[in-house]
Amino acid sequence: MRRTSAAAVATLTAAALALSACGRDNGGGAGSSETAKDISSGKATGTLTVWAMGNEGDILPDLMKDFEAANPGVKVNVTAIPWDSAHDKFTTAITAGTTPDAAMVGSTWMGEFAGLDALDPVPPSIDTSAYFEGAQKTNEVNGTNYGVPWYVETRLIFYRTDLAKKAGVTEAPKDWEGLKSMAKAMQDKAGAKFGMGFQAGGQGSWQSIMPFAWSDGAKLTKDDGKAYNFDSPEMLEAVKYYQSYFTDGISDKAAPAQPTTEPDFKSGRVPMFISGPWMMSAVEKVGVKKDQYDVMPVPAKTTSSSFVGGSNFAVFKKSKNRDSAWKLVQWLSDPKVQAKWYGMSTDLPSVKSAWDDPALSGDPKLKKFGTALETAQAPPSFPTWEQAVAGFDTEMEKVTKQGADPAAALKSAQQQAESVGTGQ
């Protein structure tokens, strides 16, 4: 389930294949750690050019009025960019040396852009420990932070509480077996056509599978974080479990990339699915009452963990106004500003302390997303991630739709990833 306007998802799927960037062995870039220069005290001044994508790009100018009011000597010009052309626009600008001062950057693009030596390291005065760790990790390339999380999202399991009660389930399951039993009971006792709305492979399906793998302790890298690791025992266990929903008829083999629609959830045809916080308003809009559904964390094998997405904010090395650009990033990270941005956009704060705001802490469902963000994880910041995971997604479609052997599929995904390399 995805909101098309959200960079939380477009971050991962906007570019079909990200360009492979070669790392540098010295002189900065993705091949070595860099020492960042700090910013000056005082207010921002001068003119700033900022790029932002999707809905965020459309409404960011309204927020910039507050920044300009707090810094009377600065003018911020925001360019809104469609997600489907954003990646190419960035890479073209990097090659031509015409990048903006600062920009919203997809989290899976950080490794690539750092590898192209395009991003400026985060100044020491910006405290990176203020952000959710999983989200901040998406900005780290070879030990250097090249940006900060602007906003975040994670995935939980949505379920119809009224139908769960009809199915004899009164408490959210804590393990994999309990979740599958609940989904089957939704079919057998509550009239569901499919108990769980999982994506049947294809582009982006890794986002649904990895929460189970991470909850079993899987790691996407090996060799001290220098290589892909798609065929680990933990990954195999998760893929076998995921496949069983399709082989047992609990999930739909013919499901498209968006396996559950809001009407499906309302009618009870598919009363369970994994998605992000934006689906709360979406299902309520079609008539699902607040007390008819709830969200729960992905059940754990070891420790519950889900996918962390969202978008980062970074400053480019070619910035003509670096000092003020980082002051803008710092301002966007203020907890009060983050809370206001949530009110404008429904984008969840990346700064942990911003979750103390009543608008977030007072909503019990939203609070569960905040708790999940504390253990949520992201893919590695390799420049070639989009290429490597495309092979994984293709193999997963064979697993779900054709009943292919999970071990053979993961071996093939690993071989494809190794042929692509990490780009570092």
Automatic annotation (TrEMBL):
Example GO molecular function: maltose binding
A GO BP entry: maltose transport
SUPFAM superfamilies the UniProt entry points to: Periplasmic binding protein-like II (SSF53850)
Keyword flag Transport: yes
Residue stretches of biased makeup (Polar residues): 412-424
Keywords for the protein's UniProt record, in alphabetical order: Signal, Transport
Family: Belongs to the bacterial solute-binding protein 1 family.
Protein name, UniProt field: Sugar ABC transporter substrate-binding protein
